[in-house]
Design goal:
With about 210 residues, this protein is mostly helical. The protein has helices at about 1-15, 20-30, 30-55, 55-60, 65-90, 105-120, 125-140, 140-170, 175-210.
Length: about 210
């Protein structure tokens, strides 16, 4: 089951989201070791989400739309702040000092990646759905679900470590001008992720009002 979880988790990793982009940008800007510190932060939070899903917290969240919307607003806002900080940072402007990479400070990067991963706690709902489906299809026990979850967490660690290695390798050949352009592009993409999250909430609210 651990191998199945690893394969499934690895498949999900290829849908690159804001966390993956942030790790890649960090590796290019600050090097391999700080980026790997960030990978550790992401892996810890992913493990927390998956453990929560196994324990059934996802079911509780699914039953309360108000809490879901509050979490989405929080998550979208955090991602937008990261995006603005990255975008302004590309031009040497400190938009929010607390969100800067602090010249590759591993502790700061660890906190940032944990916060960015925590900005999407509704991931618990996704994993709750996955485990429910697996339970129905394969009649998995608690031990099997735990092994599947561990495999998925391991895939996060392996994939993002590879992303960090790729980013640190590319940093050798990327000029400062291209790096600024890339950082600005990452900032815009992160803002886009956050805005899209908030727009989904508005759309859902309007639909509920009409119905």
């Amino acid at each position: 089951m651990m191998v199945k979880g690893f394969k499934f988790g690895l498949l999900l990793q290829f849908a690159m989201g804001p966390v993956c982009l942030f790790i890649f940008q960090t590796a290019i800007a600050t090097g391999l070791e700080p980026a790997l510190t960030g990978v550790l932060g992401v892996t810890l939070v992913d493990g927390l989400f998956i453990a929560s899903a196994i324990l059934g917290l996802g079911t509780l969240l699914r039953a309360n739309p108000t809490i879901q919307n509050s979490i989405k607003v929080f998550g979208g806002s955090i991602v937008i702040l990261f995006g603005l900080s990255t975008l302004f940072g590309a031009f040497g402007v400190s938009f929010l000092p607390s969100f800067s990479l602090a010249a590759g400070d591993p502790t700061n990067i660890f906190r940032h990646t944990m916060l960015l991963t925590l900005s999407n706690p509704l991931t618990i709902l996704f994993w709750a759905g996955i485990f429910s489906a697996k339970l129905a299809e394969e009649n998995l026990g608690q031990q099997d679900m735990t092994k599947f979850g561990l495999g998925a967490v391991l895939s996060t660690l392996v994939f993002l470590s590879a992303v960090s290695l790729l980013g640190s390798t590319l940093s050798v050949i990327i000029s400062p001008i291209i790096l600024k352009f890339f950082n600005g592009a990452v900032g815009i993409v992160l803002i886009g992720f956050g805005v899209r999250t908030l727009n989904k909430i508005r759309t859902a609210d309007r639909t509920n009002e009409i119905s």
